Amino acid sequence: QIKVVSGLDHEMLSQVTVAYNKDPSPVKLNLGVGAYRIEVSFSFLFYRPSVLEMPYSRYCSYRISCCNGLSYLCLISGRSRVKEYLPITGLAEFNKLSAKLMFGEDSPAIRENRVTTVQCLSGTGSLRVGGEFLAKHYHERTIYIPQPTWGNHPKIFTLAGLSVKTYRYYDPATRGLHFHGLLEDLGSAPSGAIVLLHACAHNPTGVDPTIQQWQKIRQLMRSKGLLPFFDSAYQGFASGSLDTDAKPVRMFVADGGECLLAQSYAKNMGLYGERVGALSIVCKTADVASKVESQLKLVIRPMFSNPPIHGASIVATILRDRNLFGEWTVELKAMADRIISMRQKLFDALRARGTPGDWSHIIKQIGMFTFTGLNKEQVTIMTKEYHIYMTSDGRISMAGLSSKTIPHLADAMHAAVTR
Ligand code: PMP
Fold it and tell me: Where are the domains of the chain?
């Protein structure tokens, strides 16, 4: 007989969604989930439902225009309806193009065959495979993760066999980067330790280092021999430019040192459920890179054997085709701009209500999330009285807002902080 206690209680986000689904209020708002919504309707993700039902076919693409003018490309490929197994490392072209997307077209590391890339199950799976690889083959088993960070990070790395420690990242006093604390904590980490870095649009805080601060972090890490492990779940969402968002990673690769990278296409291509992502390991030599690839196969094979084909084909088709790629970048920019405009509107709405406090962090923070600074009690008021659902740390998803819902959110925030 199997005897276990319920695990659901420990999942903050699933609790939020369960409570939201049960709430019959017509004004209810779920700002917990990190999924992009368009302006017109909350039930839309990127696609119209019709797109999801389209057959899988090769060599043709459709553009779907959403009601607000945003368009999204969807792939349909398939005369041949390929459903064969992929190799253990996934779709080779997808891997190559994914590495180029982050490291750059002219990356010397790619040219010198020092990068090994394997397709994994979205960002989560890429982090897990990277974690397992390091636990098996890297001499230092401690990984430093930012405080706070995405709730899944400590669990992924602990289960992968690494020992998890934190470094200071967010300063509640300034609602910005705790730069001094970060440097101090990484400075006292043991030489060779692994450091998890959010490539851009830090989740949950929305606070990213400036380029100058990244340079200092890089110098410190390289001087101490710390190994960077980048988590990139939001490339294109922070600035609206794929290349700009890739700058911190490229800066680390340009110095010739090693690093790991977990890429997710869930958010920036709207392929949440396709579970498509990649793990890259940048090595010092081509010989090491090829040995690393052989060991990654040994990690992947007993874990999920080989990755799914559909999502990777969609991504490869968009990345390989100049026109499709161009359209995708335009759409990414539109999404990033819409999030930025939601930030401004929320800031203006709070100012208009005379809500006490400095809310400038709402416009300063970057990416999908805002760390509002609301405490647990204030979040409870928002949920109980205003039917607004969010995680108890005060994080809201800016991508889940629309012009129509901002006044309601601002009223709730005003009430919560003036109570
Ligand atoms: N890293 C961060 C920081 C995230 O926010 C997310 C998604 N919430 C992921 C990784 C992984 O997401 P997925 O597995 O859906 O790609």
Answer: 17-34+337-418, 55-84, 92-320
Looking at residue 76, its pLDDT comes to 43
Please work out whether the CB of residue 264 comes within 6 Å of at least one atom of ligand 1: yes
Q: Is the CB of 233 under 6 A from ligand 1?
A: yes
Instruction: Report whether 279 contacts 128 (CB < 8 A).
Output: no
Q: Whose CA is nearest to atom 13 of ligand 1?
A: 123
Across 363-379, b (16+ Cβ under 10 Å) vs e yields eebbbbbbbbbbeeebb
What is the distance in A from the centroid of ligand 1 to the CA of 131? 15
Q: Select which of 28, 185, 245, 267 is catalytic.
A: 267
394 lines ligand 1 (CB under 6 A): no
Alpha helices in 117-274 (DSSP H): 122-137, 152-160, 179-187, 211-224, 242-245, 247-254
Q: What is the Cα–Cα distance from 108 to 163, expressed in whole angstroms?
A: 33
- Burial of 171 by CB count in 10 Å (0-12 exposed, 13-18 middle, 19+ buried)? middle
Report yes or no: 205 and 178 within 8 Å, Cβ to Cβ: no
Q: What's the token pair of residue 264?
A: 């997710």
- Render pLDDT for 402-411 as a digit per residue (tens, 0 to 9): 899 999 999 9
ipTM of the complex as predicted: 0.99
Query: In this predicted structure, what is the pLDDT of residue 18?
Result: 85
Contact between residue 234 and residue 366 where contact means Cβ atoms under 8 Å apart:
no
Q: Is 29 helix (H, G, I), strand (E, B) or coil?
A: strand
Name the residue with tokens 């010739």.
256
Q: Which of 34-48, 65-79, 302-316, 377-391 has the lowest mean pLDDT?
A: 65-79
% the chain with pLDDT above 90: 73
Q: Is 231 a catalytic residue?
A: yes
CATH class held by domain 17-34+337-418:
alpha beta
Strand ranges in 66-179 using DSSP code E only, listed in sequence order = 71-76, 115-121, 142-147, 163-168, 170-171, 176-177
Q: Report the CATH number of the 92-320 domain.
A: 3.40.640.10
Instruction: Give the pLDDT confidence score for residue 289 in this predicted structure.
Output: 98
* C-beta of 122 in contact with ligand 1 (< 6 A): yes
User: Which atom of ligand 1 is closest in space to residue 126's alpha carbon?
Assistant: 14
- Residue 401 tokens read as 């807002």
